[in-house]
Design brief:
The protein is mainly beta. It has helices spanning 26-29, 44-50; strands at residues 8-17, 22-25, 33-36, 58-63, 77-81, 94-98, 104-112, 116-120, 130-139. It folds into 2 domains: 8-70 and 125-139, Chitinase A, domain 3; 74-120, Thrombin, subunit H (Beta Barrel).
Amino acid sequence: MKIKTGDRIKVEYSGSFESGEVFDASDRHGQPLEFEVGAGMVVSGFDAAVIGMEVGEEKEVTLKPKEAYGMPDERAIQKVPKDKFPAGAKEGMMIGVPLPNGQQIPAKITKIDEKEVTIDMNHPMAGKVLVFKIKIVEVL
């Protein structure tokens, strides 16, 4: 049975950068990844890659940034007055930027100067080519 949009599936996977450095894998979580195909629960290229596969099938796909986390967006880099941050804030630190709806966006402090703190709200993997090894374990 070929996988189609709307199927709920379990996959074993390994995700790496072009350098071969693994950034995530299902075995690190102790179980396969479960998701609904086409529901936007994974990056678009991963979603598209599993369509047409069958249980037990394996494949490797290389995703360009537009199929994964997109390209960095300069509008997601903001300067905020330094007095809005605690004294212990340091460059490289991850923070949560509150949204009006109460949710938070993760951001990285990239620069601190006398008056301002520069934060980057781009996804850390924006602009990166990702390589996934995927194995279909089960269709639920």
